TrEMBL record:
Family membership: Belongs to the ROK (NagC/XylR) family.
Pfam families in the record: ROK (PF00480)
InterPro entries: ATPase_NBD, ROK
Record's protein name: ROK family protein
Sequence segments annotated as region (Disordered): 1-25
Species annotation: Nocardioides renjunii
Superkingdom of source: Bacteria
Length: 327
């Protein structure tokens, strides 16, 4: 399934900017607000009753607990100005790290400068914003939006961003796991002699197939490393081709592992690196087919045919957060 085949039930009205510019679409029928809080940016959306994205805002994320809350409050206020009226609907928040959904607690969100003890993020945000708040892991939230994109009940969303992780929707329900670690595919070791991973293991998938790994293998000061790498590979640079192929092999290995353990109906690629678009899907499909050349069993699973991508510039994590809030 290609990106075009996936379809999108929502329509982004504007890409927004990192400095806080907003879209200004009429806000009738507001359903929920979604905030995707990342280590570098916080992306907020207002989603209507029909799934349409009515407004978007991006702002740089301030680190630390107070910085995260303050940034979220500014994005929320900007969204209210964009829609022309105060926002009174529920807010869903997607954040990296381990999330206790029942208690609204966040811990080990290193990229946000939140370490150690539980942070009562839900309660802090609810007090600051004055509306009900639900907190969820960002990749899990994105998986809900990915499920809506492909209209299936068994969906894996594979986020290829700074790190590598998956959100699992099984029989229409999120699978978080006993410790909230379900889908941490990036920390599956594939090479015991490989590079050290931030998790303390060696040779994890994330050391091969992540934005961090790609930037290390193909450093550039001219735009996003993934875009630069794929452009150089398309121009025939043999070094770029080698780096691209190893990276896409790693992503294909992640898809294979998810296919063999979850066997989902659809696997959807997203995350910052996926902004490369169709060239990434094509190369991952090629690697998947190569993995199946020596195994009739693996080839029979048709993993390449189950693979699609989030449409470029679609705010999947923020929309997913809004779906979390809407229930």
């Amino acid at each position: 399934m290609s990106t075009a085949q996936a379809g999108a039930p929502t329509r982004a009205t504007d890409a927004g900017t990192a400095t806080g510019a907003v879209a200004t679409t009429p806000a009738g029928g507001m359903r929920a607000v979604g905030l995707d809080i990342g280590g570098t940016k916080t992306h907020g959306v207002v989603v209507g009753d029909d799934g349409t994205v009515l407004a978007q805002v991006r702002r740089s994320t301030e680190p630390g607990a107070e910085g995260v809350v303050a940034t979220a409050a500014r994005v929320f206020e900007d969204l209210g100005r964009a829609t022309g009226s105060p926002l009174t609907c529920s807010v869903g928040v997607g954040v990296p790290g381990l999330v206790d959904v029942e208690r609204g607690m966040l811990r080990h969100a290193v990229n946000l400068g939140v370490n150690g003890d539980d942070l009562p993020l839900r309660d802090l945000l609810a007090a600051r914003l004055g509306v009900p708040v639900v907190v969820e892991n960002d990749v899990n939230a994105a998986a809900l939006a990915a499920r809506a994109l492909v209209a299936a009940d068994d969906v894996v969303y594979l986020s290829v961003g700074t790190g590598l992780a998956a959100g699992l929707v099984i029989d229409g329900r999120l699978r978080r796991g006993e410790h909230g670690a379900a889908g941490e595919i990036g920390h599956l070791p594939i090479d015991p002699a490989g590079a050290a991973c931030g998790c303390g293991q060696f040779g994890c998938l994330e050391t091969v197939a992540s934005g961090r790994a790609l930037a290390k293998a193909w450093p550039t000061v001219d735009g996003p490393p993934a875009a630069a790498l794929f452009a150089a590979a398309a121009d025939g640079d043999p070094g770029a081709v080698a780096v691209r192929d190893r990276f896409c092999w790693g992503v294909a290995c992640a898809v294979r592992a998810l296919g063999l353990t979850i066997d989902p109906e659809c696997i959807v690629l997203g995350g910052g690196v996926a902004e490369v678009g169709e060239p990434l899907r094509v190369e991952v499909v090629r690697q998947l087919r190569a993995l199946g050349e020596g195994s009739a069993f693996l080839a029979s699973l048709g993993l390449a045919d189950r693979l699609s991508m989030v449409p470029q510039h679609y705010p999947v994590a923020a929309v997913g957060a809004a779906l979390v809030a809407a229930g």
